[in-house]
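[step 3/7] fold_predict: job queued, chain A
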Amino acid sequence: MTEILIRKADVVVTMNPARDELAGADVLIRGGVIAAIGQDLQAPGAQVVLAQGCVVTPGLVNTHHHLYQTLTRAVPGGQDALLFGWLKTLYPIWQRFGPEEMFVSAQVGLAELALSGCSLTSDHLYLYPNGARLEDTIHAAAEVGLRFHPTRGAMSIGESLGGLPPDALVEPEAAILEDMIRVIDAFHDPREGAMVRVGLAPCSPFSVSRDLMREAALLARDKGVMLHTHLAENDEDIAYSLSQFGCRPGQYAEDLGWTGADVWHAHCVKLNAQEIDLFARTGTGVAHCPCSNCRLGSGIAPVRALRDAGVAVGLGVDGSASNDAGSLIGEARQALLLQRVARGADAMSARETLEIATLGGAQVLGRSDCGALQVGKRADVAIWDMSGVQAAGSWDPVAALILCGPGRVRDLFVDGRRVVAGGTVVTIDMAEVIRRQNALARRLRN
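[step 4/7] structure written:
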């Protein structure tokens, strides 16, 4: 396999245990792995990628997404609603999706993530209308080239039984568990360097039964896969938990086996001090989705308190129907700003935010082989050109990456394979994918 030598970066941000930032450094990639980092590396015959004027970082990691939602951005009726009202608006539209909608919307969402520097993303797919299957998104990720953690989500409690989703979008719980086994056996790769790892993700406390939550946790532990769901997203979520289960979300999760290093929860905006301590003691992770939380008026997650307690925190763009963008570097900036709004200007630094966006996300997803630029780690590398207008005049290029830009990566390597070159996705025909996406959106709208 051809070696790749990234040469003379202004700064290489390693995210190694010492958090070294190396000036004028090179990065050598061999066989999908970081082979060497240092100055004036020699690699005869290697493909050379010049990085003067650039900051090189680990690829960013996205810990929460709903890729199918890229077909329903800026939908009237849902633009100004809180979480439950927003869902009620979108469910009837999502009910008309099928395999093509799932595949194309995933391609668009993954390409958008790649352009924002993301090399590893999870996805939470919890509805399967009209023959759609989890592998529709897995095949899309294989074409785009991102490292992918799809989760087999589910909804089983429809409106007729007191749940939020329409009955047409829920599935029998026995069928859900059977398909969970199928997709794990077919697609999950537990090996180091894996490009696909499957998780289990019943959607939320208001759309599945306690029995399904408990059975999914038992199945995940039997199969050695991770667990994911939404938790404590807003005040409505807390009220539902108290009225239906007689406890707060943290107690609900603990009672059903949904805490531990193999579990991560999305949002967690309304966790209290006891729940933060529970997550810290059990090693439970959190996917922080700042833009979506703002868009839906859910509140500001207690990220400072979570980090100070030792909870693993990563970033998530969430679905493009509730964001409505899918820029992970944009989420990093928003995360920093929200903590400062809530806690003061010294609440979070740009470098800590970048750590959350890279190493933090890898830790949440259980990927000790990703999230840092170190010899032996996977070659997931983002190259950011700081010579453009967004960073012009900046004194500290690492902080500038979060505080001012650029908002688009110049080059992105995933497992040593170039996915973005010169600010363009090179693995798929973007013009054709966008054309198909817009045609599908018009068909849904009409």
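[step 5/7] annotate
DSSP finds 14 helices and 17 strands in the chain.
The radius of gyration is 21 Å.
exit 0
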